[in-house]
Amino acid sequence: YFLFGRAEETISTATKLRRENRDWPNVYYLSGLAVEHALWAIRCKQAGLIEPDFQNCPGHQLDRIAKHASLFEELEVRCKASRLFSVNWKTVRDWDSNRRFKKVSQKDAVGLHLAVANPLQGIMPWLRSIFQTLQ
Questions:
Q1: Whole-prediction pTM value?
Q2: DSSP secondary structure of 59-121
Q3: Secondary structure letter of residue 48 according to DSSP
Q4: Which of 22, 45, 66, 87 has its Cα between 20 and 30 A from that of 80?
Q5: C-alpha distances in angstroms, 45 versus 2, 48, 112?
Q6: CA-to-CA dists, residue 81 to 107, 123, 128, 130, angstroms
C-alpha cells in the first residue's frame, strides 16, 4: 500500500505545480513517476512483495514495469477499446525520467500530466481501479 500512497502524493504534487503554472520539468517528471509508483504498487500487491523486485525489472521503463506487473494484456484490451486511452498510454509509456535534467516545455509537461491524470481516460485512474480490486 505504501507505493500506491506514494503514487497518489506524487501526482497530487504534479497537479499542484501545474495549477501554479510553474516548474515544468517537475510536472513532467512527477507525472511519470506517479505511474511508476502505481505500477510497482500493483506488482507488489499481486506478488505479495514488501518492496519492488527491481533486480527483475529495472525502474523508469513504464512499459516493462507494466509487463512485469502482468498488465500487458489488460492494457492492450483497454487501448483497443479507447483511442484516447491508447494515446494517453503511448504518451506515458514514452516518459523519460532523465528529461527532468533538461528543459521541458509547458506543452510537454501538461500533455504528460493530462495523459496520466485525466479522470475518464487517464492512466492513473485506470491503475487506481486495478489496485483497488486486488486482494
A1: 0.95
A2: TT-HHHHHHHTT-HHHHHHHHHH-HHHHHHHHHHHT--GGGGGS---HHHHHHHHHHHH-TTT
A3: T
A4: 45
A5: 10, 5, 26
A6: 26, 14, 18, 17
Q: What is the dihedral of CA 56, 60, 61, 66, to 10 degrees?
A: 70
Q: How far apart are CA 6 and CA 95, in angstroms?
A: 18
Cα-based angle 27, 25, 126 (whole degrees, multiple of 5): 35
Per DSSP, the three-state class of 49 is coil
The three grid cell numbers given for residue 53, joined into one nine-digit string: 523486485
Distance, first Cα to last Cα, the chain: 11
Residue 100 near residue 29, CB atoms below 8 Å: yes
| CB-based contact 111:84 (threshold 8 Å) | no
